[in-house]
Amino acid sequence: MKRRLFFAATTLGVAAGALILTSCSTPQMRISDHPDLYQSLSPKDQALVSQGQIRSGMSRNAVWLAWGSPDRKIVGNMAGRSTETWIYIYYATYPYYPYYGPWGPWAYNNPSPAYSFAYTSVGVATGSAHHHGGRNFVFFGSPFYDPFFYSYIPQSIPYPGKVVTFSNGRVMSFQYLASH
After folding, report:
1. How many angstroms separate the CA atoms of 85 and 95, rounded?
2. Domain edges within the chain
3. What's the pLDDT at 81?
4. Is the CATH code 3.30.1450 the one for domain 13-94+154-176?
5. Alpha-carbon distance 103 to 117, whole Å?
6. Residue-level pLDDT at 123
7. pTM for the full model?
8. Are the C-beta atoms of residues 144 and 31 closer than 8 Å to each other?
Protein backbone atom coordinates (compact mmCIF):
# COMPACT_ATOMS: atom_id res chain seq x y z
CA MET A 1 0.00 0.00 0.00
CA LYS A 2 2.78 2.46 0.96
CA ARG A 3 4.69 1.57 -2.16
CA ARG A 4 1.67 2.28 -4.38
CA LEU A 5 1.10 5.63 -2.67
CA PHE A 6 4.77 6.55 -3.07
CA PHE A 7 4.66 5.61 -6.76
CA ALA A 8 1.52 7.72 -7.32
CA ALA A 9 3.03 10.71 -5.51
CA THR A 10 6.29 10.41 -7.46
CA THR A 11 4.43 10.19 -10.78
CA LEU A 12 2.37 13.25 -9.89
CA GLY A 13 5.50 15.19 -8.90
CA VAL A 14 7.32 14.33 -12.14
CA ALA A 15 4.27 15.26 -14.23
CA ALA A 16 3.89 18.60 -12.43
CA GLY A 17 7.60 19.36 -12.86
CA ALA A 18 7.46 18.55 -16.56
CA LEU A 19 4.43 20.80 -16.99
CA ILE A 20 6.16 23.70 -15.24
CA LEU A 21 9.38 23.31 -17.19
CA THR A 22 7.66 23.08 -20.58
CA SER A 23 5.41 26.08 -19.93
CA CYS A 24 8.40 28.39 -19.42
CA SER A 25 10.00 28.04 -22.83
CA THR A 26 12.49 30.54 -24.20
CA PRO A 27 13.30 31.44 -27.82
CA GLN A 28 16.44 29.27 -27.60
CA MET A 29 14.39 26.27 -26.42
CA ARG A 30 11.85 26.71 -29.24
CA ILE A 31 14.65 27.13 -31.80
CA SER A 32 16.42 23.96 -30.62
CA ASP A 33 13.12 22.02 -30.64
CA HIS A 34 12.22 23.25 -34.15
CA PRO A 35 15.45 23.86 -36.11
CA ASP A 36 13.63 23.40 -39.44
CA LEU A 37 11.41 26.45 -38.73
CA TYR A 38 14.43 28.50 -37.67
CA GLN A 39 16.45 27.54 -40.76
CA SER A 40 13.57 28.58 -43.04
CA LEU A 41 13.87 32.21 -41.82
CA SER A 42 16.05 34.87 -43.41
CA PRO A 43 19.33 35.68 -41.62
CA LYS A 44 17.86 39.03 -40.48
CA ASP A 45 14.81 37.29 -38.96
CA GLN A 46 17.00 34.59 -37.39
CA ALA A 47 18.98 37.28 -35.57
CA LEU A 48 15.79 38.96 -34.29
CA VAL A 49 14.16 35.68 -33.24
CA SER A 50 17.30 34.66 -31.32
CA GLN A 51 16.91 37.86 -29.26
CA GLY A 52 13.14 37.38 -28.76
CA GLN A 53 12.26 40.29 -31.05
CA ILE A 54 9.92 40.60 -34.03
CA ARG A 55 9.40 43.04 -36.91
CA SER A 56 6.65 43.97 -39.37
CA GLY A 57 6.42 41.48 -42.23
CA MET A 58 7.56 38.44 -40.19
CA SER A 59 5.74 35.13 -40.55
CA ARG A 60 3.61 33.50 -37.84
CA ASN A 61 6.28 30.83 -37.35
CA ALA A 62 8.94 33.47 -36.71
CA VAL A 63 6.74 35.23 -34.14
CA TRP A 64 5.98 31.92 -32.46
CA LEU A 65 9.72 31.15 -32.24
CA ALA A 66 10.44 34.61 -30.79
CA TRP A 67 7.47 35.07 -28.41
CA GLY A 68 5.94 31.61 -27.98
CA SER A 69 2.30 30.58 -28.03
CA PRO A 70 -0.19 33.38 -27.38
CA ASP A 71 -2.66 33.30 -24.50
CA ARG A 72 -5.53 34.49 -26.72
CA LYS A 73 -6.22 34.63 -30.47
CA ILE A 74 -8.73 37.04 -31.95
CA VAL A 75 -9.95 36.76 -35.53
CA GLY A 76 -11.12 39.98 -37.17
CA ASN A 77 -11.24 42.17 -40.25
CA MET A 78 -9.29 45.36 -40.92
CA ALA A 79 -9.63 47.44 -44.09
CA GLY A 80 -11.43 44.59 -45.82
CA ARG A 81 -8.70 42.05 -45.03
CA SER A 82 -9.00 39.20 -42.53
CA THR A 83 -6.72 39.48 -39.53
CA GLU A 84 -5.63 37.38 -36.60
CA THR A 85 -4.40 39.02 -33.40
CA TRP A 86 -2.30 37.20 -30.81
CA ILE A 87 -2.41 38.48 -27.25
CA TYR A 88 0.17 37.62 -24.61
CA ILE A 89 -1.17 38.11 -21.09
CA TYR A 90 1.06 39.22 -18.21
CA TYR A 91 0.11 39.47 -14.54
CA ALA A 92 0.83 42.23 -12.04
CA THR A 93 0.46 41.89 -8.28
CA TYR A 94 -0.84 44.89 -6.41
CA PRO A 95 0.91 45.45 -3.06
CA TYR A 96 -1.88 44.93 -0.55
CA TYR A 97 -1.06 45.23 3.11
CA PRO A 98 -2.18 42.63 5.63
CA TYR A 99 -4.73 43.15 8.36
CA TYR A 100 -3.24 42.96 11.85
CA GLY A 101 -6.33 42.83 14.05
CA PRO A 102 -9.16 45.16 14.95
CA TRP A 103 -6.98 48.30 14.97
CA GLY A 104 -4.95 47.72 11.81
CA PRO A 105 -1.14 47.67 11.65
CA TRP A 106 -0.86 51.04 13.41
CA ALA A 107 -2.37 49.90 16.75
CA TYR A 108 0.90 49.82 18.67
CA ASN A 109 2.17 53.16 17.37
CA ASN A 110 -1.07 55.11 17.47
CA PRO A 111 -3.75 53.68 19.76
CA SER A 112 -6.13 56.58 19.16
CA PRO A 113 -9.64 56.13 20.58
CA ALA A 114 -11.27 57.44 17.40
CA TYR A 115 -9.50 54.94 15.19
CA SER A 116 -10.11 51.98 17.48
CA PHE A 117 -13.71 53.10 18.05
CA ALA A 118 -14.40 52.86 14.34
CA TYR A 119 -13.24 49.26 14.29
CA THR A 120 -14.69 48.03 17.59
CA SER A 121 -17.98 49.85 18.02
CA VAL A 122 -19.99 47.19 16.21
CA GLY A 123 -19.19 44.41 18.65
CA VAL A 124 -16.25 42.59 17.13
CA ALA A 125 -16.00 39.86 19.75
CA THR A 126 -19.63 39.43 20.82
CA GLY A 127 -21.61 40.53 17.79
CA SER A 128 -24.42 43.02 17.88
CA ALA A 129 -28.06 42.72 16.88
CA HIS A 130 -29.51 44.95 14.18
CA HIS A 131 -32.95 45.51 12.74
CA HIS A 132 -33.32 46.62 9.12
CA GLY A 133 -36.11 46.27 6.59
CA GLY A 134 -38.28 44.19 8.91
CA ARG A 135 -35.53 41.63 9.48
CA ASN A 136 -33.25 40.99 12.43
CA PHE A 137 -29.63 39.97 12.01
CA VAL A 138 -26.43 39.79 14.04
CA PHE A 139 -23.25 41.33 12.70
CA PHE A 140 -19.86 39.98 13.77
CA GLY A 141 -16.71 41.87 12.88
CA SER A 142 -15.77 45.30 11.73
CA PRO A 143 -17.91 47.09 9.15
CA PHE A 144 -14.70 48.57 7.72
CA TYR A 145 -12.99 45.22 7.18
CA ASP A 146 -12.53 44.52 3.48
CA PRO A 147 -11.44 40.90 2.86
CA PHE A 148 -10.05 41.78 -0.57
CA PHE A 149 -7.98 44.70 0.65
CA TYR A 150 -6.68 42.88 3.71
CA SER A 151 -6.10 39.56 1.97
CA TYR A 152 -2.83 37.77 2.66
CA ILE A 153 -2.93 36.49 -0.91
CA PRO A 154 -1.98 39.28 -3.33
CA GLN A 155 -4.44 39.85 -6.14
CA SER A 156 -3.11 39.22 -9.66
CA ILE A 157 -4.27 41.64 -12.32
CA PRO A 158 -4.01 40.43 -15.94
CA TYR A 159 -2.97 42.85 -18.67
CA PRO A 160 -1.92 42.48 -22.32
CA GLY A 161 1.88 42.67 -22.38
CA LYS A 162 2.34 41.92 -26.06
CA VAL A 163 -0.06 42.10 -29.01
CA VAL A 164 0.68 41.19 -32.61
CA THR A 165 -1.73 41.34 -35.58
CA PHE A 166 -1.28 39.27 -38.73
CA SER A 167 -2.76 39.78 -42.17
CA ASN A 168 -2.11 37.20 -44.93
CA GLY A 169 0.13 35.28 -42.51
CA ARG A 170 2.51 38.22 -41.96
CA VAL A 171 2.93 40.69 -39.09
CA MET A 172 0.89 43.78 -39.87
CA SER A 173 1.40 45.51 -36.51
CA PHE A 174 2.67 44.72 -33.01
CA GLN A 175 2.85 46.32 -29.61
CA TYR A 176 4.65 45.46 -26.38
CA LEU A 177 5.23 47.14 -23.06
CA ALA A 178 8.73 48.54 -22.96
CA SER A 179 10.67 48.20 -19.72
CA HIS A 180 11.44 51.45 -17.91
Report:
1. 31
2. 13-94+154-176, 105-152
3. 93
4. yes
5. 9
6. 40
7. 0.58
8. no
